[in-house]
Each structure stands twice: as C-alpha cells, then as structure tokens.
Structure prediction request, 280 residues.
Amino acid sequence: MEPTTGLILRRITQTELSVSAHKLATIILDGIAWKEGYNGLSRGTAAFTLSTLAEKMGVSRQYLTVLLTELEASQLQLTRQKPNGKYAPWLFRFTAFDEEGEIEDVASGRDDTSLSSKDYNKTVFSGHININAVSDVFQTCWADLIKAAKTVLPCWNVDTQVIWDRFLAFNRARGNEKVPAGFLLGFMRRWRTAPGATPRPKEVPKPQAMLDPRERELRDQIKAAPSTNRQFHASDLCSKIGMAAYEARVLEVIRQFGCQRFTAMLAVHGRAVLAGEIAR
Prediction:
C-alpha cells in the first residue's frame, strides 16, 4: 500500500510522543517529496538542515537531537542520513511505512485528497547536473524548468542564463562536479537580491468587505485556535469529551453557520480553547 500524507499524519497523531516530537514529525511530513525526483529527492523523503529544523521548532540544536532520537525510537521509525556531503541537508524518512501490508485501519481511503496524490503546481527537478558539461543553459533541459520555477521565487526577475551561471560558479567554487538536480531549485529559493534591485511588484490590497455578524463570530472562534495545530486540538478534545460529543459539536456548528465540516472543526477547537478545555 502506498503511504499518503493522510495515512502518515493519522499514524503520527496515534503514536505516543511528546507534544514537541509530534510537532517535529508534522514539520518533516510537510517536507516529504511525494513524486519521485521532486526537489531531487526520492519518493517519501524529506530534506532539512538541522539548523532549519531547530529554527522552525524554536528550540536549540541540543534539544532538537533529543526530539529526533524520540522519533527514531518510536513506531514511526524515523531515519536520517547524510549521503551528499558535509554541507548537504540531512535526508529524513519514516521507514515504518516502507513495509508492505500497512495496517488497513489507518490507510487512506479512496476519498483521501492528501497531497501525495496531487501533482498540481509542482516543478520536478529530477536527475543530476554535471557542473562542467554545458555553460549555455538553453542547450540543456534545465532552461524551461528554471523559467517555470522562478516565477514564484526571489529570482523571479533574473535572467535564466544568469541564474545558471551563478549556480555553476557556486558549485565550482566548492569543487562539485555533479550534484542532484534539486540543488538547483534550492539555490534559486535562497537567491539573494542585490541592493537596489527592482522589488517584486506588490498587489494593491483590496478594501475588505463588511462581514456579516455571524461570519465574524465564526471567524473569531476559528482564530482562537491556530489551524496548524488542528490535529493536536482534535486529539486533545476527543480525549477529554469523547468522539461522540466531539462529532455532536461539529454538527452543531454546521447547523448554526451552514459552513463546511473542516471550518466547523476549526470553530469547535476555538470554542474549546476559549472555554479552557484544551490548550491553544
């Protein structure tokens, strides 16, 4: 059975872990490549430097190591390796899902719309780049990929050849002769704009329309509980009041505001935070 975002996320919430380890697991899950070659990674693998993870978690490197050890010893069986050299990021993988015959009761059903089954808006950089092979980017297969990817990156207004030249020079200075294609996308994401360069034009904000009082009430409830923590909120609230009572609250919000189930769940979490039943 192919693992999906929904399957792994459910297993994370079901695994006995500290709150911080749960958060770290979801951060790693968010970075997993679900298409072979996406960002130069194999399917089911995420790449992070330890400093990036520590920054995202807001913890020290020492405590981050403790959390990684906890995930490695858990049922998730997190593994990490660094096959691409000293300055390359660590590669992370939940190996518990590599085995065939995954437990059926946590498998994603046919209605699962997790990111693992979607290829939308993904620019795939697969394979490797020979640094000393070709200096003219338009004689390679990378020109179109660079042009497609840079539209949403800091180098959006930089000439494709200039990006390629800078990438080659960067790797030659470090003695790299062949690198994963994902390094090119990472290089573009970390592009530093020179002083005085033309900034990306900003859209003029549109005046906000007056909200209906009921819609304002619903939004205020949702804001009380950050949506990024929704899985933990749901788990904590279900543990406190039971699944039946949780479902009843969700249905009550749907009837009251006529909203979608997902929105209703966020509102239920916000109400519970405001009432002091669960932590924010």
About this structure: DSSP finds eleven helices and five strands in the chain.
